[in-house]
């Protein structure tokens, strides 16, 4: 059965809505007309599936999972599937999806939700409560990690999505480069104990390997949540601080914020980072993972466990030698204080919008997509960590390079706040980081951040530490 492909909202509509880019990935925008719902020509039930396409199209691992899931579904002869990718930067995807979810004419039946965005969409009334569905879904009670269930559970205690991937973050490093720079001995693992160890390694690489970029981290507004979570929050949490105070107020001025921004300033003023033209655009994450690391032009990259999906035989940048060339080190806390290391975990979920037309059929499709026979190969191809315990124990899955260590990082994992204002505050974080790497002093950037966040959430909801 031929699958219809429905493209996302037009760029003109998005620009008229005053959107701001705040995400990583492809900066290519969908250019077709509005994403009106389409009825199946045969009169069958139709599921419209909306997800973010990072520019790979049908070659992307997520798209292939959807295709294979539909092709192997025993209900495909009675249910039509419209594939409705949004080709956009991550932040634009969130805003475009919100516009679609709010309109019954454009609302899909199945949507990929970043778990950090889920509280915001729940608060807006965009997502369906899945309680009645999961109570009869046996695997929900026997196979999914409890921590993953929490990530898709709203403040009201209801379930709003089925988690299909999680991840951890750390320091990818090229063993050969660090050995050449004298940071480690040949074949040795690199285990930085604090931020100074990282800066010392960068200094050595710059001196001994001048043609190599010492350090890469997402640093701009264009890489959106990747800048907030993979860079800034990995640093901030490593100081022992968090985004919110114990009384749920946003901390807008603190020593931890300054320490985090000073680290970034050290990276860029010392010439340890890449040229700003490479990191202040939406392709920055792809450039580091698909070009600079495989080509031996990058020593250390602060990034997520999922980037291994790029290097598989079917990935965007096949690199069979990656398992021998690279190591994956824990990100240390700022001064090596307890708990010694830090990682943030996130993930994505399959959610059913409140305005969906085919909810029952959609949940059946979700269950099929998450069946180990369909899901295992897909989560491996995506480079993500499985949300099902039975899949995590699968020999094929556990044998994948770096999978075990990335999963071990979950033991010390922290999470973004489950606060519906986070999706607003995160844009101010990205602006603050970009301003520092572009030359603004950490003090001035923090002052502007304080002003921006107070304006967004109200003076009564911010505090200083």
From TrEMBL:
Matches recorded under Gene3D superfamilies: Periplasmic binding protein-like II
Signal peptide coordinates: 1-21
Signal as UniProt keyword: yes
Keywords assigned by UniProt, alphabetized: Signal
Database matches in InterPro entries: Bact_solute-bd_prot1, SBP
PROSITE patterns membership: PROKAR_LIPOPROTEIN
Keyword Signal: yes
SUPFAM superfamilies according to UniProt: Periplasmic binding protein-like II (SSF53850)
Name of the protein in its database record: Extracellular solute-binding protein
Source organism: Blautia caccae
């Amino acid at each position: 059965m031929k699958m219809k492909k429905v493209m996302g909202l037009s760029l003109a509509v998005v620009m008229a809505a005053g959107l701001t880019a705040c995400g990583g990935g492809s900066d290519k925008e969908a250019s077709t007309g509005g994403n009106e719902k389409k009825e199946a020509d045969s009169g069958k039930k139709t599921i419209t599936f909306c997800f973010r396409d990072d520019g790979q199209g049908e070659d992307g691992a997520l798209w292939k999972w959807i295709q294979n899931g539909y092709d192997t579904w025993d209900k495909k002869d009675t249910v039509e599937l419209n594939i409705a990718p949004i080709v956009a930067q991550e932040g634009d995807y969130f805003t475009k999806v919100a516009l679609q979810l709010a309109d019954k004419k454009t609302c899909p039946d199945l949507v990929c939700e970043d778990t950090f965005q889920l509280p915001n969409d729940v608060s807006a009334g965009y997502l369906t409560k899945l309680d009645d569905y999961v109570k009869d879904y046996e695997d929900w009670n026997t196979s999914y990690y409890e921590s993953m269930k929490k990530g898709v559970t709203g403040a009201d205690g209801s379930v709003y999505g089925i988690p299909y991937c999680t991840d951890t973050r750390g320091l990818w490093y090229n063993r050969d480069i660090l050995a050449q720079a004298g940071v480690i001995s040949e074949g040795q693992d690199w285990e930085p104990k604090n931020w100074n160890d990282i800066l010392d390694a960068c200094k050595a690489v710059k001196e001994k390997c001048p043609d190599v970029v010492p350090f890469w981290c997402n640093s701009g507004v264009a890489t959106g949540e990747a800048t907030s979570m993979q860079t800034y929050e990995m640093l901030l949490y490593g100081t022992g601080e968090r985004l919110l105070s114990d009384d749920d107020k946003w901390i807008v001025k603190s020593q931890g914020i300054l320490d985090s921004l000073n680290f970034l300033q050290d990276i860029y003023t010392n010439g340890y980072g890449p040229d700003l033209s490479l990191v202040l655009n939406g392709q920055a994450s792809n450039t580091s993972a698909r070009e600079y690391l495989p080509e031996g032009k990058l020593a250390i990259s602060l990034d997520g466990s999922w980037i291994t999906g790029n290097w598989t035989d079917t990935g965007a940048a096949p690199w069979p030698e990656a398992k021998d060339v690279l190591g994956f080190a824990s990100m240390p806390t700022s001064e090596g204080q307890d708990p010694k290391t830090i990682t943030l975990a996130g993930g994505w979920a399959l959610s059913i919008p409140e305005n969906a037309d085919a909810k029952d059929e959609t949940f059946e499709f979700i269950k099929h997509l998450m069946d180990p026979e369909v899901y295992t190969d897909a989560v491996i191809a995506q480079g993500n960590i499985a949300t099902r315990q039975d899949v995590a124990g699968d020999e094929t899955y556990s044998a994948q390079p770096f999978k075990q260590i990335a999963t071990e990082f979950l033991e010390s994992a922290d999470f973004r706040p489950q606060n519906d204002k986070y999706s607003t505050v995160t844009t101010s974080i990205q602006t603050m980081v970009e301003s520092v790497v572009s030359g603004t002093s950490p003090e001035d950037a923090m002052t502007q951040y304080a002003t921006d966040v107070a304006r967004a959430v109200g003076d009564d909801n911010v505090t200083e530490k």
